[in-house]
Amino acid sequence: MRDLVGTSLQVWERQFLYGEFTATLVTDSASADVIVIWEDSIPPDVPPDTAGALGACDGLTQYVVDSTAAMSPSDTAGTNAGGQPPLTMTGPIRVQLRVRPGFSEAQVAACMQRVAAHELGHTLGILTHSPANTDLMWGIPTTSTPTNRDRNTAQVLYHTAPTIAPPPR
Fold first, then answer.
1. What residue spans of 60-147 are helical by DSSP H?
2. Domain of 149: which CATH number?
3. Cα–Cα dist 13/9, whole Å
4. Which of 1, 27, 145, 149 is 20 to 30 Å from the Cα of 132, by its Cα?
5. pLDDT for 161
6. pTM of the entire structure?
7. Residue 9: which domain range?
């Protein structure tokens, strides 16, 4: 799983022209901003089958936001474009990767490559699905790398004032 997550993170790091995003894998989840877990048994590492079944796996990205954070009316530092303080996450983002029964190991491996990269795209702030079925951020991804639209979405997000802030450290 470490290799799968690492590869997916590298895929997203390459989308940023100026290195706005870099990822570091950690061994202790207490220091992680994102925690990736397998819901079921971990599939073996096998060579990918590029024609892997779309239904062989799926994923879910979850985060909790504290909307009760208050800010002094005179404090404008840290406000978003609407003049409001960003909402704050209350803990790490959690990504679940799930294997569905009835598929070959190669189909699961190919599916996991797409789904892991897709779910990690959500952790970057792309919280909705793309309207284009060719994009990595489409609801059921058919590719394991971001398209130009995915890349542009991520770059716009990283150059826009945030509306959700990470949890305090």
1. 105-123
2. 3.40.390
3. 6
4. 1
5. 85
6. 0.82
7. 2-165
